[in-house]
Amino acid sequence: MSAETEALTPAVLIVSQLGLAPVAGLLAAYGMQCELVGDAESIPGSFWGDSEAGLVGHRLLVRGDTPVHSALHEASHYVCMTAARRSGLHTDAGGDYAEENAVCYLQILLADYLPGVGSQRLMRDMDAWGYSFRLGSARAWFEHDAEDARDWLLARGLIDANNHPTWALRGDHSA
After folding, report:
1. Sorting pLDDT into bands at 50, 70 and 90, what band is 134?
2. Based on the number of CB atoms within 10 Å of its own CB, is 168 exposed (0-12), middle (13-18) or buried (19 or more)?
3. CA-CA distance, 106 to 102, in Å (whole number)?
4. Which one of 64, 77, 83, 171 is separated from 11 by 20 to 30 angstroms, measured CA to CA?
5. What angle do CA 133, 137, 141 make, to 5 degrees?
6. Looking at residue 132, what is its pLDDT?
7. CA separation (Å) from 163 to 4, 39, 105?
8. What are the angstrom distances between the C-alpha of 62 and each of 41, 44, 51, 124, 168?
9. What is the DSSP string of 108-140?
10. How far apart are CA 78 and CA 15, in angstroms?
11. Where do the DSSP E strands lie in 47-143?
């Protein structure tokens, strides 16, 4: 890769590189719609602004420059929140520390369902973007320190014992 090409290549995988269809197809399993907004537009429902994905109701909004990890993170918030929170969802997914960890764990699992992405790539992208884990990397956290996040997802029926998504949304009455 030339220095010029390298300078133009994003440090993390973005939606325009993957295409919207794989992300939209994955999220459809959860009853979500994935919508692309124009490159020059701000992303509705984006908590962090810039290129970060947005949530409005059952819609995930992205631009071509939205990192795939951001799209999966926000989608995982949608999956992990209660139905009551989803019903009024706009921008701020809310949740507590345990839920945030579960969201990070689920986004890593979901990456394996996107062609050309996978959990290893997603964890490298999370590190490159600046996610912070006490063991120093997303991979170290996922492999050695995320039992609580896994247990949280299991207890709510969002993954099975083999770490596969159940394609269910958290209900109002799950702990």
Report:
1. confident
2. middle
3. 6
4. 77
5. 65
6. 79
7. 41, 35, 10
8. 10, 9, 8, 21, 23
9. HHHHTTSTTTHHHHHHHHHHHHT---TTSSHHH
10. 19
11. 54-56, 59-62
Which two tokens mark 145? 């320190």
The mean pLDDT value of the chain amounts to: 90
Do 68 and 12 touch, CB atoms closer than 8 A?
yes
Distance, in Å, from the CA atom of 52 to the CA atom of 26, rounded to the nearest integer, reads 18
Confidence of residue 92 (pLDDT cuts 50, 70, 90): confident
| pTM assigned to the model | 0.91
Sign of CA dihedral 149, 145, 70, 162: negative
Position with higher pLDDT, 46 vs 109: 109
Other CB atoms within 10 A of residue 89 CB: 18
Q: Is 33 helix (H, G, I), strand (E, B) or coil?
A: strand
Residue 55 dihedral angles phi and psi, to the nearest 5°: -125, 125
**Tokens 């992405």 belong to residue:** 117
Assign 59 a pLDDT band (cuts: 50, 70, 90).
very high
Q: What tokens does 149 get?
A: 């996040």
Residue 108 is encoded by which pair of tokens?
A: 């890593």
Angle, helices 68-80/20-28, rounded to nearest 10 degrees:
10
How far is the C-alpha of 158 from the C-alpha of 1, rounded, in Å? 41
What pLDDT is recorded for position 123? 95
